[in-house]
Amino acid sequence: MLSYQALEGWVKEMAELCQPEEIYWCDGTEEENIKLIKKLVDLGKALELNPTKRPGSYAFFSDPSDVARVENRTFIASDLEEDAGPTNNWAEPKALKETMKKLYFGSMKGRTMYVIPFMMGPFGSPLSKIGIQLTDSEYVVINMRIMTRMGRDVLKALETQNQFVPCLHSIGYPLEKDQMDLLWPSAPIDHKYISHFPKEKLIWSYGSGYGGNALLGKKCLALRIASVIAKEEGWMAEHMLILKLTNPEGISKYVLAAFPSACGKTNLAMMVPTLPGWKVETIGDDIAWIWMKDDGRLYAINPESGFFGVAKGTSYQSNPNAMMSIRKDTIFTNVAITDDGDVWWEGIDGPMPQHLMDWKREDWSPTKGTPAAHPNCRFTVSAKQCPVLAEEWENPEGVLISAILVGGRRPSTIPLVHEALSWSHGVFMGSMMGSEVTAAAISDQIGQVRRDPFAMLPFIGYHVGDYLRHWLDMGKKSNDALLPKIFYVNWFRKDEHGDFLWPGFGHNSRVLKWIFERCEGTVSADATPIGYLPKEESIDVRGLPMKADALAQLLTVDTTGWLNEIESIKVYYQSIGDKLPERLKQELEKQEQRLMFEKEKEERNL
Fold it and tell me: Over 90: is that where the pLDDT of 446 sits?
């Protein structure tokens, strides 16, 4: 990190490298935002949506080569390759800098270098970190204004905090005099770099204008670099939602949840419970920074100030609170546009239009045979527009965490919910979580589980084995009675016909109720080889559209399936190498022994 005194010198040095036409220091005001959006609309880079249907909202359309995070162009430049570990692309720091400096040289010609002072976390929080991002993209500026605390107040805070993470970003498309700009300029794929230098706490990104590669406060700082800082300072930066769950008696608990992509994180964070009297409120939908206070308990803040959510599949059925959040003042990226100037995507409410402008800005009809909106289309919106935003969402002291959920898409084996036997067993559960590969992926991987420890596979800024050890070490600072309980949930179990056994969405509140009551100590559970499972009568399924034996299937331990799972985990653990914590090997062995004992009992009873 750099000091406040080094700021102007660093900006000057980077400007000499990138050679912008001018340098502009962002103040974060509404007037500045309006001016930048007007510039983008006038250049044809942004489309103003129908102000009566979607006031204050705009649509952007990226180049087809720049539509998502590019993991194969994302690098951890640690001094030693072994420090990056098997889950990261490693690059030697000095060589990577030399390569990127050549790309950065003159990369901002004909453009403005925007200086974005931003804060991750609420002002005054002991965990909050300041970043300064330099960028030549107005799209990045207006998105960072939503996703972070940005502007003059951050520079004022920097005077006393005196440390910032330097972040350099260029779209990599300089303009010569009188050269026509592109609607979405970017660099070729082999010139894209999203680079992290953990020792220096430095982020360099080049060639992509897309969110996760270009909004450097998000995955780059808040997870990859923050995970390194957190390990050094004794806290945790995690890819987790934070929700507030309140029972009919008015008692509230706070829950973290880590799910891989396409497993309903945002839907859970903004859930509308179907149980009378229960309420879910949102604190964050994507990232949690977690630390232990002197009382031995874990507390969390949401370092972001907005939602950069996947639009596809979002509807009033799946997530009504998200739909209400994006009714106005929202940035949409790669959605389709209706003839009356509103947004559309696959899975949104209502009948399919017969004509749209698709995300490639081309005419579209159902006969075209291609998606109208990109599968990774996005909305960027301020958290303050969420109708169920918890009042303490910006509390600098964070919220006390009672439960941590992990999970993934598993059509078999994993039950609806089970509770860890201990903190270390819970870390084992988080280490082996993941989703089954579907037909959308490479055919020879169908049916295999893509392990994604704590949903952090693409976001750990150092060796995954050291990361899992850090989880275990956090538990050693306290005791299981004070730490959050850890639960594995699986909304995606299927029957023999391929139909979902659990109805999901707002009905997941019935599982949250059992978790809440376990944290309160008011409901019992059955001890099984894999952990504590609910008794059937403990899950309120009244009125649910479920088959008669569905709950029994959801709460059964498939011993044979689990023994197969153990063999798969062994292979996965081997891939982590020598840094896999011994305690996790022991947890794996103990779970295997419990399952084998259970299998023998079953066979004796046949």
Answer: no
Q: Which of 26, 167, 220, 263 is catalytic?
A: 263
* Domains contained in the chain, CATH given: 4-44+71-234 (3.40.449.10), 238-305+391-600 (3.90.228.20), 307-385 (2.170.8.10)
**442: helix, coil or strand?**
coil
Token digits of residue 473 = 């070490």
Task: Answer for the pair 219, 207: CB distance below 8 angstroms, yes or no.
Answer: no
Percentage, residues of the chain above pLDDT 70: 98
Q: Give Cβ neighbours of residue 222 (< 8 Å, ≥ 6 apart).
A: 120, 237, 287, 289, 303, 304
Residue 263 is among the residues annotated as catalytic for this protein: yes
Which tokens in the block code for residue 521? Answer: 């100590």
Distance between CA 132 and CA 351 in Å, rounded? 45
DSSP string computed for 163-207: -BEEEEEE-S----TTPPPPSS----GGG-EEEEETTTTEEEEES
Taking the C-alpha atoms of residue 538 and residue 533, their distance in angstroms, rounded to an integer, is 10
Q: When comparing pLDDT for 439 and 48, which is higher?
A: 48
The answer to whether residue 263 scores a pLDDT higher than 90 is no
